[in-house]
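Cont'd.
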Amino acid sequence: MSGLRNFVDKIKPTFEKGGKLGFLHSTFDAFETFLFVPDTVTRRGTHVRDCVDLKRVMIMVVLALVPAMLFGIWNVGYQHSIAFGLDWGFWNIVLYGLVKVLPLYIVSYLVGLGIEFISAQIQGHEVNEGYLVSGMLIPLIVPVDVPLWMLAIAVAFAVIIGKEVFGGTGMNIWNPALLTRAFLFFSYPSKMSGDTVWTGGVERWMNEGVAYQAGNGLVDGFSGATPLADPTLANLQPKLWDMILGTIPGSVGETSVIAILLGAILLIWTGVASWKIMVSSVLGGLAIGYLGYAVGATDLPGYYQLVMGGFLFGTVFMATDPVTSAQTETGKWIYGFLVGALAVTVRLWNPGYPEGMMLAILLMNTFAPLIDHYVIETSLKRRAKKVKIA
Amino acid sequence: MSNNIYLKKGLDLPICGEAAQNTRKVVAPDVVAVKPTDFRGLVPKLLVREGDKVLAGTPVLADKMSQNILFTSPVSGTVAEVVRGEKRKLLEVRIKADEKQEYVDFGVKKVADMSAEQIKATLLEAGLWPALVQRPYGIIANPEVKPKAIFVSAFTTAPLAANPEFALNGEEKNIQTAVNALGKLTDGGVHISFNSENYSGTPFHRLENVIQHTFTGKHPAGNVGVQIHHISPIRKGETVWTVSLLMLAAIGKLFNTGRYDVRRKVAVTGPKAIKPAYVEAYPGMAIKDIQDFYDASENLRYVSGDCLTGENVGKDGFLGFFDNQVTILEEGDKYELLGWAKPVRCSQFSSSRTYFSWLTPKKKYAMDTNLHGGPRAFVVNDVYSKVLPMDLYPVHLLKACLANDIDKMEKFGIYEVLEEDLALCEYVDPSKIYIQQIITDGIALMLKEMC
């Protein structure tokens, strides 16, 4: 341990101002603080500090995403295996999943962190941990076959335009991971929707006639459609358990209700994400889901809306982003409810978009400050009244 | 107590080094310092020169803005040194104490027969006026103003703070005198707040001519600012005064004995204090005078006050005017390998559930001064209000301060807070923002623009 410390101390001057590699100062600092909690002491104010820092908070979100990620990797292989009639065993499935998902992670982190490091260097900041979470989220909310160069452009867009121009993590208006997805969705719609993009290898087979495992083709009767493509009771009732387990096509990490709930438990237990937003979003989704059921917009009971598509993933991991969600406690209830309600509204009444979670969250991100504004105004007025009476 | 006020939010800091309830030592004053920096916004005028003889109660400084506000020497002796900082800012007047203490005689006075003006004059003359702190802003009270009310907190919740029942044992009569005197300066009465759990255990609940309140809750429930917020919030244009029990005792003594006697029991506390206990000392006591409480060869921090709001005075520093606590902490200038990534960090406390210290609620921790991270922007938004039992929006207030937006600062409650009320917000902050400094700057701006 002290050997490592000595080594770091020895190379440190090279990276400091005036050193040979001074232009990499922020990068060095990021790696050093990753390894060691720095030796800085409090200068003024409270002399002692809680040992929690943003790294700890962020790593909790990353941990919470691990079940969804692992399941996603397995499911990518599993869907491929079904689509091509391969009857793969567990390890084959996982291997294929890794082959497809790992590159997504590499691109996401390389591009995203690269930009974070460079902009930290330019602004003379320390590198913020925010992208550790965004980078973990992005591969989980895209179709597995998304071309890597597209992903790279989308990540660059989201980090630069969505975050850094506002001043970095903590200053951004929209969730950077969702912004990545929105960029892909609107720039390359053919790669982001339809029945063929959700299963790894299908697009390639259809375009080039090449399969991962030579000699195999798509099975007869392959559909590849997500539950959202045909959201009717007749179609989905037999699949309900598959939807809860997650053995259905979809974006990499969004399919398994169980894996997502595991993450939700960790987030709520540690208090890192707001349970109020999660609960109210579910309530909002159920409310509109059942309303649609009652007026005949759909024949699916409201709870189906929760297990389809990205609803739960968005509710647990994206809507609860502390920077872009509502900041006041009452505001969180309103914000969450509207996220859930809007998402299901888009699903039920907008024929153009089968899924509405991404747009619902981005829209509510935009309006979160407005919600907070009115919550605070109301609270201040109520207080002023109370003071007058007293 | 029918109208007990329950405060759910807050945090009692589990730091070790509580002072045992005995007086280990009577510090014979050697060099003591009068520090104008103990008072916010004070522009001091020096009234003595090096070599002058002073008695306990002789004016040393005056407030340049209203020159009838005097600051007097706590001991009799000779002015040894006038210490100035950058731009010749006056930092300390050091007084070398005589072996035998002599006091200026202000005359024993009967409060019942005195008018408000006479009480004011006595306090101003003897240098105890600065004991009255005005809210908003936490500045020295303006003698020209009649406050809405005067507030006193009769209990402390700050980490390792001196126990008022022990530290002020035997001062009940003096405190009663002071309450009677100060009661004449306001129409709103003197409000005293007690801890509901120790209400009958404290002798101060027998005080008369006061309006009593009780509170239940963790730190900062004992902060007078939090109490005012729940008793009668400060609106724009209003002023209230606050005063501590410690200062009440000194004020009472002034009327009862005619002396400026600010001698007090000081709790020497903190993880690095050896056999923490109380000492009897004067404000302005040199930290060196309690050398047997710490190991000077270690890299330590000497704080006058508690570890959340106190001032880092250094090894050669002096105890503050308002303080009856010294906290000795270890400087945490060490690297910690993979600290944040360790699943468990047994030796460190966190109020966050991302660590496991909630499993050991009784454990006390030897906290040091490490920042435990790097400064970041505000990210997590719900940690602050969990330790602030006030109906305020702390992050919005802080951002208004950062933006120098006076309208918003007013709206979000700058009149109601001092640094100490948000100290816990700073403690728990995962973004490691210097929250108290932001409030200090905000208040400085308000003082500049509004007064």
